[in-house]
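Entry 14. Ran structure prediction on the chain below.
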Amino acid sequence: MPSTLVVHHLRVSQSECIVWLCEELGIDYKLVCHDRDQQTLLAPDVYKELSPLRTAPVIEDVDTYTPNHDHIRLAESQACIEWICRKHGQGRLLNKPWDPNWKEWLFWWHFTHGSFQPTCQMKLLAAALPEDHPGVKVANSRINHYLDLIEQRLSKSRFLVGDELTAADIQMVFPLTTQRAFVPIDLSAYPSILRYLREIGERPAYKKTFEKAETALKPMLDANPQSPYKF
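Output, structure tokens:
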């Protein structure tokens, strides 16, 4: 039976994590790729129809749990990841309350979108301010603190939660890699993060993600990768 899952991927965006997730789970899905507007670097107008957020990612699926098998469209990365893991992945990559690392997983699962990624966005906006502006100092201080936390964790653990990849890693890798096309972050002082990214980069599912979903972008796994965009 053909898959009901459609993944709308905006190139050079966090929707890459949804493609990567599907590849890690080994599930059937249809991939639809969209390019950014080359003038604004924003999502194309089609996203206005796909999601009220007008941002990536967006997935479409048939909700087999409803009586009429309703067609759904879903946005927000964490929501898309949880939907796919539960409905198509039999709960894989989502830790359970009885798992030994449940508390750690719960923290890191929410840390990326709750703290780290908003701070990256803060740093992006702060780039337009004078260097001595308080907002610049706050953004840099927070992001350095969060990178220190991630480094400390990965110095003791292969992945964010033990020795197995989880959905928390699927969330975390984008702001440490592709998002740096927009928010330059030097990772030279973080050997454990760089080790982590190198290992992620060797995963067959991660490689396949870029083969399928990106036409020109190479995985941004180095300490100071070159951005495909000029600002």
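DSSP finds eight helices and four strands in the chain. Will compare against last week's run tomorrow.
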